[in-house]
Amino acid sequence: MNYExxxxxxxxxxxxxxxxxxxxxxxxxxxxxxxxxxxTLEKIALYAYEKGIKILSVFAFSTENFKRxxxxxxYLMDLFVNMLNKRHYVFKEKDVKVIFSGxxxxxxKDVLAAMDKITNDTxxxxxxxxxxxxxxxxxxxxxxxxxNISRDILAxxxxxxxxxxxxxxxxxxxxxxxxxxxxxxxGENRISNxxxxxxxxxxxxxxxxxxxxxxxxxxxxxxxxxxxxNRRFGGNETKSN
Length: 241
Ligand code: FPP
What we know:
Helix content is 41%, strand content 15%. Strand 3, helix 5 (109-121) and strand 4 form a beta-alpha-beta unit. Helix 2 packs parallel to helix 3 and helix 3 runs parallel beside helix 5. It is of the alpha/beta class. The protein is built from 8 helices and 6 strands; from the N terminus they run E-H-H-E-H-H-E-H-E-H-H-E-E-H. Bound molecules: farnesyl diphosphate.
């Protein structure tokens, strides 16, 4: 689709849901669903950058996902290592900087090593940002920011009176603009503890398509939907995107 004249979200997020159901409905294992989902992620991310999106955050693994079976968690961790190690040249080639949000604790050493390698290798890339949220919880991000602010107050680096939205933002995991648009696939209408602070004024979109089946045409439709929204940011004047 031609994107001329369309407004793009500056910061887009995708909650990649429905891998398990996509697989089960096809008589496949949940792991096969996750593998297909990882291919969809690469395809959609590269398409989004090609169309001019600069910042993409994706929910790859929530802290709550550790409640899943050992096998499924193990498979997902193997998939992250594989994808980060084997496909990381794609992000290097496309000049995309890969960063991670979430707590490092509980993650396996090989996962951390693969994360660190791609972070270092793509640190100077400028065309786009891929923020992969792994062992991520939006509430924990706010808790972690609060702890670090408290530490800096106790160390005398800042004063309580200095705390405002702008300062709080500086203590989040990443220095990214607020989210404009959230796509959650699979038809579930919730945000599941994802980037709560950053989503304050985001437009939400819930296509009834499992993530592995999400195509570039579905992505086009999502961007058209974003362009149909009237964003007022609490005021009463319609602001275009
Ligand atoms: C949710 O579907 C999906 C996940 C918990 C995993 C998402 C991970 C990927 C798509 C791989 C990404 C790879 C990298 C390197 C970032 P679900 O399992 O909850 O599906 P269900 O609700 O149908 O069971």
